[in-house]
Design brief:
about 280 residues; mainly alpha; MetI-like fold; about 75% helix; elongated
Length: about 280
């Protein structure tokens, strides 16, 4: 792991800041590699978890059509219950325990060991999916039911209404929570060190094991985590502003009231009021 081409002194310098400078000078590449693995696992895991979360949220909100036969109703109920159990299991157990169970469980069941990097992707994705499912479900519930009824009145099926009208708006509403989940995953990947994923924290542990200098090394690790989370948070805020995302979801307003037309430049609310008075 360590760069053998660099002539590293055999003794540490005295003083905290001198030791911090020492580790940065001789082990900067290991810290950088660890940051790369941490960011990669967090990004891939969040994206995959987001996609899986959409599927789980849709299973939780399967349409209860009274015209369905008993078999179809039973299948929908089973899939919804399966999604609920998945969410409860992964939200109710620590990621560290999940990592150990999945990594060693695969080795026990199939007699082969997964790559630690692949295992990291799988574990973070499955864990994130459970949390994203509830976030997306709340985003779906925030959409006014009148939009669903409007889509159905235009002849769209339930699935077409969901994928063309409801889901795009729900995703836009949950972008802040998605960014927050990515930041959380950057910090939570540190627990993957229990299965020897070479992220930032694990590389720091290896350096500590060689020099027995816990405080300076973990101080550097904590600063690097802080740089990643703060930098990513700033980038996500810029993206939210670019997409004009509101952090608060306004109360739905009926499209048939003057208040709904107050912000629509194509409709004159005063004309609408006069027309309503003449009609009444």
């Amino acid at each position: 792991m360590f760069n053998i081409l660099v002539d590293i002194p055999r003794t540490l310098p005295d003083g905290f800041f001198s030791q911090v400078g020492f580790f940065i000078q001789y082990y900067w590449l290991e810290f950088l590699k660890g940051m790369g693995v941490t960011l990669l696992i967090s990004l891939v895991g969040t994206i995959c978890g987001f996609v899986l979360g959409i599927g789980l949220a849709l299973l939780r909100k399967l349409d209860n059509n009274p015209n369905d036969n008993k078999l179809k109703k039973g299948v929908k109920k089973f899939l919804s219950g399966l999604s609920y159990c998945y969410i409860e299991v992964f939200r109710g157990t620590p990621m560290m325990v999940q990592a150990l169970v999945i990594f060693y469980g695969v080795a026990y069941a199939f007699g082969t060991t997964m790559s630690t990097l692949i295992a990291g992707f799988v574990i973070v994705s499955l864990n994130t999916a459970a949390y994203m499912a509830e976030i997306i479900r709340s985003g779906l519930n925030s959409i006014d039911k009148g939009q669903i009824e409007g889509g159905r009145s235009l002849g769209l099926t339930y699935n077409q209404t969901m994928f063309k009208i409801v889901i795009p708006q729900a995703i836009k509403n949950v972008i802040p929570a998605l960014g927050n989940e990515l930041v959380v995953n950057i910090k939570d990947t540190s627990v993957l060190s229990v299965i020897m994923v070479t992220d930032l924290f694990y590389n720091g542990k290896l350096i500590v094991a060689r020099w027995y200098a816990q405080f300076p090394v973990y101080f550097i690790v904590s600063v690097l985590y802080l740089i990643m989370t703060i930098g990513l948070t700033r980038i996500l805020r810029l993206i939210e502003k670019k997409l004009n995302v509101k952090t608060k979801i306004s109360n739905p307003t009926s499209v048939t009231t003057p208040a709904a037309f107050a912000t629509n430049d194509n409709i004159d609310a005063e004309d609408y009021k006069e027309e309503e008075e003449r009609r009444l």
